[in-house]
Design brief:
SGNH_hydro_sf, about 110 residues, mainly alpha, Rossmann fold, single chain
Amino acid sequence: MPGINSGALYSLLPQLVLKIDRCDKLLLLLGTNDIAQHKQAPRSQFKINMGLIISSVICSYYPQNIILVSPPAVGKNKQKKRTNQEIAFYTSDLIKLVTTYKLQFISLFQAMIA
């Protein structure tokens, strides 16, 4: 859902995600809008939102079927609303959550940096 942050997604989760009875894989790429300076969610709130989202989806889908994807890296000369340093911080928060909940994780950020 382009343009919304983790708080908005959590409030819309029943309509956007949880209405699907079954899925083979659930891929969640979240955080890009939470990091954007013009609508930034503090990291503490982002962690709370992500915990709520993860808790909700693991109640409906098996944790091994859920894949979290980090926000992508940005070209510092092209993107003025996000920095790679901020993305790295939010990505580290996601890594802690996927470890806690034993979810799969794809670090799009690290792949793009490499």
